[in-house]
């Protein structure tokens, strides 16, 4: 049986952890890296402790020594992929083709919408959170906690924090919608049109702030 914390994230499964031991932590990172690679290559469908153990080259008991169960392992693997995606997007945003927030968002988009298999897993995770919010809602909440501060950091420094948060929420909702649409319909023309509308909205928002 799976256990969950009050915020919906996976809870402890009752197994001893390897935390605190440098050797154990190194082993945990090695196992997580292998499971993350498998998740990126093969997606969320049929993800299980048995599959994770096979990918890690270990037994399920070894995984349960290092992790709090299959949901904890899934959460940590997805976090690894999200951190990589966010890092790549922010690196691209640091070198925009023009001035302003809109240009930074435009520079980020290719890093978010590429054909890297790992990226599709992250969008699958959002779909899973929508399909079964009671069990997997934390996948969506964790994404927001990670992305919103990054998007707020791209906003003009002289904006109030509330305004930064509101605009970041708009960007996140729009980009998330585009990504889900891309994975489900492959309507590149429609998504491109929607993205350009988002860029124009951001340009107007910035212009209003300087008027």
UniProtKB/TrEMBL annotation:
Keyword match DNA-binding: yes
Spans annotated as Disordered: 1-26
Keywords: DNA-binding
DNA-binding region: 48-67
Domain HTH tetR-type intervals: 25-85
Superkingdom, natural source: Bacteria
Name recorded for this polypeptide: HTH tetR-type domain-containing protein
Organism: Actinomadura luzonensis
